[in-house]
Amino acid sequence: MTGMNTTxxxxxxxxxxxxxxxxLVALLLGYVRWAPEPEPVSVPPGAQAGDLILEPxxxxxxDGELPAVCGTLVVAETPTDPDPPLLxxxxxxxxxxxxxxxxxxxxxxxxxxxxxxxxxxxxHPSAW
Length: 128
Prior knowledge:
With about 130 residues, the chain is α+β, with helices and mostly antiparallel strands. About 15% of the residues lie in helices and about 25% in strands. It is built from 1 helix and 3 strands, in the order αβββ. A 3-stranded antiparallel sheet has the order 1-2-3, with no helix packed on it.
């Protein structure tokens, strides 16, 4: 074994940080791969175009959760079609916290890959 370097490599702080980052990335990739899928929004059985199905819920914000009403608005995919396929649009109504509320604010969030529209932080009123 002449000419071969047999000294052990020391665990320097940079190597420890690199190994920790690699482990963190591996854990995050594992979570993304095996995390449970959220329930997709779907048209409730027996629903018709124009139906609005609501139930009490909470809406997450940067300052905590707000009481809200969540549900589904059922619309026709093609309104001029006599028997159109139906679409389910997720709806969240957050009540005003002011004693003298102004006009309501509506925003449309693009479809998310998680299927969880209210979970997207870009739509939070506290982020405005």
